[in-house]
Amino acid sequence: MTDLVRDRAAALALLHEYTKSEALRRHGYAVEAAVREYARRAGEDEAAWGNVALLHDFDYEIHPTLDEHPQDGAAILRERGYPEWFVRAILTHANHLHLERETALERTLFACDELAGFVHACGLVRPDGIATLEPSSVKKKLKQKAFAAGVNRDDVYAGPELVGVDLDEHVATVIVALRPIAAELGLRTA
Ligand SMILES: [Fe+2]
Ligand SMILES: [Fe+2]
């Protein structure tokens, strides 16, 4: 039997149980892909890191406010048997909880969350999705406040330092990570 933290089928089933919105499911897939890419490069546990990312917003649909998400979701994860380090990593993505991002996993999740959403949004308005998307174009769009206005720019700009790269490299990594799952993200493929 696969250890729960590394069991993607179980994580995916839990995401789908609580999240009916395709857009929110896709957000989970996008952040998962980005975090997995960083895990792979760092020689970390891709499967476990990926599941943390896949589930980081799993309760958002039922807990859409800051007084519930993600802290009430954490209780569900504990009930399902996820260990404290896994649950804590998810809690640290929420700025309003003011938790220190202590581990590489926690820093990577935060660094990828908003940027994966933003790269996804960039791809949705392009004829070939993210197939030819360049970091320069993403950076230009970041400066357009009206574009994907829900994405917190401060969080995006804080990301590179957390994962020890510059913004160009961070954006390039996220783009590369998302390309193989472009179709699952609802993006046109070249
Ligand atoms: Fe969240
Ligand atoms: Fe998120």
Radius of gyration: 16 Å
- How large is the count of helical segments? 9
**Proportion of beta-strand residues:** under 5%
Largest sheet, strands/sense/barrel: none
Q: What is the approximate shape? A: globular
> What is the average of the pLDDT values?
97
Order of helices and strands: HHHHHHHHH
- Structural class based on helices, strands and sheet pairing: mainly alpha
As a percent range, the share of helical residues equals: 55-70%
| Ions, cofactors and other bound molecules | fe (ii) ion
- The N- to C-terminal Cα distance equals 39 Å
Number of strands: 0
| Low-pLDDT residue intervals, each spanning 5 or more residues | none
Model description:
The radius of gyration is 16 Å and the shape is globular. 40% of the residues are buried. Helix 2 (22-42) runs antiparallel to helix 3 (46-55) and helix 6 crosses helix 9 (167-178). It has helices at 8-18, 22-42, 46-55, 71-79, 84-91, 104-124, 135-142, 153-163, 167-178. With 190 residues, it is mainly α. It binds fe (ii) ion (FE2) (2 copies). One fe (ii) ion is lined by residues 27, 31, 56-57, 113.
